[in-house]
């Protein structure tokens, strides 16, 4: 597990529960559960630990330190390159390298459907740099006998990832003035998908979209959460004369970078065709579990 934060830790625990030896690389390995062998590693450095020779799968689950272009490049492109250097120099029996990517590589689809056959058209630097990392993975592993797998995840929510719940509770949530489809996946399902693609008998394809079964209008999700919490429905966003919503939801809180989500409906049909089943098939089951206190937030 190259990058063992919340998602990587959950996937690592699931690998361990299935009987695998799991080694987790992170800057602060002492925070990892005992089931994962923690090793100190800074993926931004070219000096990484040796990959154990009996390694059969490598999962690269990287997160940028800040929402800036430099931080994204350092994490996703440079970090992945350093991991691949270590893998290829190790002589380990690696069969698959799975890179955790994002549906941000698709940009905005105007509410239309996208799947693995859709040409990526990133709308901002985050999607563009993550797409560059995907291409690096395919290029570096070509001809090595190692299968590259890209898992493009939608918005991850779950224990400790409660932004929409917090907005509804805090009274800052706003219904969008125009249609806006969102795509998400519960952290536990994202971790289970990682394990599934790394261990399934059939050779996985080059790319899968990891989202739940139901792309949902943001307003529907906010309304559902308000009802579950017994709170008033959020106020509606106003629209100016040109039809544009105000305030705009198109930039990140840091400014500049367009929203990674865009307006699209992502299909998970290819992932489900491999036999993968979701514990939380829609936002309803997932958010109800969070509100009921189900699950653990990992360090």
From TrEMBL:
Pfam families linked to this entry: Epimerase (PF01370)
Region spans: Disordered: 235-268
Highest taxon above the source species: Bacteria
Residues covered by the NAD-dependent epimerase/dehydratase domain: 14-200
Low complexity biased stretches: 235-261
PANTHER family: NAD(P)-BINDING DOMAIN-CONTAINING PROTEIN-RELATED, PROTEIN YEEZ
Protein name: NAD-dependent epimerase/dehydratase family protein
Origin species: Arthrobacter humicola
């Amino acid at each position: 597990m190259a990058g063992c934060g919340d998602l990587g830790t959950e996937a690592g625990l699931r690998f361990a529960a299935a009987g695998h030896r799991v080694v987790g690389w992170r800057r602060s390995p002492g925070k990892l559960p005992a089931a994962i062998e923690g090793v100190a590693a800074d993926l931004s450095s070219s000096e990484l630990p040796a990959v154990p020779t009996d390694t059969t799968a490598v999962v690269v689950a990287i997160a940028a330190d800040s929402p800036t272009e430099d931080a994204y490049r350092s994490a996703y492109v440079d970090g992945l390159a350093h991991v691949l250097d270590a893998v290829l120099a190790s002589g380990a029996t690696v069969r698959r390298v799975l890179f955790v990517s994002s549906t941000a590589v698709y940009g905005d689809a105007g509410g239309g459907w996208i799947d693995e056959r859709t040409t990526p058209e990133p709308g901002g630097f985050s999607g563009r740099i993550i797409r560059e990392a995907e291409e690096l993975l395919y290029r570096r592993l070509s001809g090595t006998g190692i299968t590259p797998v890209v898992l493009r995840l939608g918005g991850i929510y779950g224990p400790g990832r409660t932004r929409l719940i917090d907005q509804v509770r805090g009274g800052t949530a706003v219904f969008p003035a125009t249609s806006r489809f969102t795509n998400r996946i519960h952290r536990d399902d994202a971790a289970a998908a990682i394990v599934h693609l790394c261990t399934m008998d059939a050779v996985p394809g080059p790319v899968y979209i990891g989202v739940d079964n139901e792309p949902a209008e943001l307003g529907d999700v906010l309304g559902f959460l308000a009802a579950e919490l017994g709170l008033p429905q959020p106020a509606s966003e106003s629209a100016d004369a040109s039809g544009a919503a105000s305030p705009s939801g198109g930039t990140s809180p840091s400014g500049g970078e367009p929203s990674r989500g865009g307006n699209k409906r992502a299909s998970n049909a290819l992932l489900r065709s491999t036999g993968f089943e979701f514990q939380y098939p829609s936002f309803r089951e997932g958010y109800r579990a969070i509100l009921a206190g189900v699950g653990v937030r990992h360090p």
